[in-house]
Structure formats: structure tokens, C-alpha cells
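Q: Is it fine to ask for two folds in a single conversation?
A: Yes, each is treated on its own. Send the first.
Q: Here.
A: Result:
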Amino acid sequence: MQGLGAAIRAVVKEYLVLIAQLEHQYLIGALTLQKCWFYLQPSLRTFHALSSLVLDIQATNQERVRNGRSSSSGGQLLSLLHRRWTTLAGDHHITQLYQFLIQKASVPYFEILDRWVRDGFLEDPYNEFLVQENKSIDREKFGDMYWNKRYQLVVEQCPSFLLGTQEKILTSGKYLTVVRGCGKAIPRDETSNPISFSENNREYIEAIEKAHLVNSKLLLDLLFGEFKLMQRLSSIKHFFLFDQGDFFVHFIDTALSE
């Protein structure tokens, strides 16, 4: 919500600059009614689109409040903006406006996304991201279900343009959290650009998929390399006689008769 508010303020500031320029033209006697109408027409369309957007958000929030839910934020607002941006593709001026709004409004969201999939840190003070952390989960109580309970998807906070990647986003950060929990440092590729929204969705989707691949390899190398997971499993298998199937069955049959 803060990102969208900042984007709208930027549009209003641009309009105020236009008013100041028109006032200057008026004071020097160079502004006619025809010129004034010509310069203000784009602004009229802009503010009509902004009014429609704000009323849409307001109506959506009122409906959510009546249903006992919180107001729209984060991924929900980005989905609304993206829907308007794609459905109004025939109007170049309004399309550019919504593209500007979604690019600015998505900055905080993608900053959280980039930090999560590349560093494994979840910094979401307003609960606007598609991954939610439950810090009250007790590792000893939940055992092997700990990581599934600690970080969970919030489906309604997944923007429409990220649908299909939400599971990879969730697990990418989880992998790094597990690695860090083992006391290992997380290497970061400083040469790659931060993940951000772009008109070509393949750019940020490919960045997410690449981060998922790198993070999963990092965890697998740790488990099968340093922690020697296969060797440990083999030892357990040998201890419980699972690697000697015929002998184990014979032993059970013999013990049963005793």
C-alpha cells in the first residue's frame, strides 16, 4: 500500500508542476483557453483512471471488512493493478499510467522477494508477502513437520503475475534457512541484479527459477557432501538388518516359533 501511495503522490506532483507551468503562461499572457484545454486533457484522463482505481480498492476493502477480513494489501493490490494494466491495453496513455503505478507499487514487494529467495531472510513488517513466518512454532514439538509449519504460503497475497512460481519462491527461502540453521554461510552472487518487476515477466520468473535451482543445489551438496546423508542412511539400514532381507525374514520366522 505504501508503494502505491508513493506512486500516486508522484503523479499528483507531476500534475502540480503542470499547473505551475500553466500559471506562468497565464501571467505572461501566453495562455489561451484552447491551449489550457489541450494541456489539461491528459491530466483529466489520468485522474479519472486514478479515481476509478481508488474507488475499486475502496469497494474491495469494504467487502473484505464486511466478511471479517483485513483490507487489501501487498499481492492483492498488485493483482488488481496488473489486471487493470492488461485489460486496458488499447488505451496507450492509461496503459502507461498503470504500468508506472505497478512498477512503483511493486518495489517493496520485490525487495522482500529478492531478500527471501537470495538470502533466506523474511522481512515483511506489514504481512504483505506471499510467505508467512510463524515464529511461535516449537522445533521439538513438530519435529520433521517444523519447516512446513514455520513457513507457509498465503495464497491471496500472491500477485496474479507470480502464479505458478509461488511454491518455488517458498522453498527457495526455506532451503537457505535450513542451510543457515546448520551454521553455514550463504554465498550471494553480487554480480546479478536484484529481482524486480518488468513488462517482460520472463525476466523475473527466470530469476526466481535460477535462485530456486541454486538454493536446492546448495542444500543437497550440504546434505550429501558434508553431512554424508547416504552413508548415515546406509548405517541405519545395516543396523536394523534391512540390507540383509533374507536373513531378517528368516530371523523373524525363527524368533516367532521361540
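Q: Second one now.
A: Result:
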Amino acid sequence: MLAIMQPFAKRRIRELGYDCMYLEAPHLLPLTSMVEVDGKMVEVTNGGRENAKAWFMYSEKDPSDASMALQETSMEYFGLDTSISMIKDCLCKLETESCTIFGFSQGAAFVHILSILASTARMKPDCKHLSPFAKIDSAILVSGFASMHQRCMTDNLQATDCEGSLITIRSLHIIGDRDTSVPKPYGEKLAALYAEPQLYIHNGGHFISHNKAIIDKVIEFLGHV
């Protein structure tokens, strides 16, 4: 099986029989953006992060504009089709029938999208044996927020296919009680979109913790997949 995991638990995860595959988001974000200040366009830096990448963008004009990230209104994510195709190709190459996906922050929002594809593919008789997304049987989401994308995604599956019903794949949601980038309520709302979510709330912020208790929780979750 495949687990997309951070290196901190790599050895113990492999002891459970998992192989870890680390995937890099395809969209490189620019170091600067042009914004309007007092009627004039001004160049500003985007946090000085070199090689910053994203699974999708919130603005077609400015790839680095993340001001809409936590807006709880329907929108279109730009570049999402490229990321979905990348994951689809990866799943097609897998020789196993099931895998677990892992995502942090925007990556967790992307995992929410992949969870919709997986849950829908598993429910539709015509997709279960045809769509590679049916291989996804569980998800781990860290510091996540719900996807607001409302467009067609792939394999004739829509972002709204799970509307009115809960996502059926197993999920573990790790949330920071002091997270100021993605506050705790966003992670809780995301978890509520899954049928049987497991929540682990730690007293930290917006990061992937190396805390033994969290690692043990991840290992326990994987052990029951």
C-alpha cells in the first residue's frame, strides 16, 4: 500500500508494510507579486520563500494571492486539473489496490478533493473498477480546511458529487489548538464532512509535529486501515 507521509514516521510506517511516496506540488509560486496601493501598482515580496509550490491557485491573475484560501464561499481553484492528473497517473502506476493519502495545510484541502473523488468512485459501480481514485481508502489531513472548489474535476466526477452525503473513506484529522494560519474551527468543519472522522487536537500551531503522541496516533490509524 502507499502512504504519502512525512519522514518523521517513515521507519515505523514501513514496519506496518507501507511504502512511502513523496509527491511535490506542480505549481511554482513567484517570489513577487504586483498589488495596487493608492491607485498604483507596487511590487511586493511573497514571504521570501524560494521554491514555494502549490497544488492549486486561488487567483488566475496572481498565483501567490492566497487571500481567498479560507473564504467559505464557492470558487474555482486554478491549476487543480494539473495536480489531479498528476495524482491519477501515480495511482494508475500503483500495483496495490489501496493506499492512504496524507496532506498538510493546502495539501490537506487537496486531500479533501481527492477524498471526494475516492468516495464517489467507490460508490459508483461504473467507476469502482475503472477509476484509479477508488484505490484511496483512507486519508490523513493535518492543519486542513475544506475545499471550496465547485467545478468538474475528472473521470466525470464533480466537486459536488458528495454534496448532501458524507465522505465514506476513513480519515484522521490532526489539528493545532493554537494554529493561527488555519484556526481550529476550519479543521473541525473539514472533519465533519467525513462519515467517521478521527480527530487529534494538539496544543501547537501550524506545523507537522514530531510529538510521539501524534506519531503513535498516525501509526494506530494506519494499523486499522
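Q: Anything structural to flag on that second result?
A: Two points. DSSP finds six helices and twelve strands in the chain. The first strand starts at residue 2 and ends at 3.
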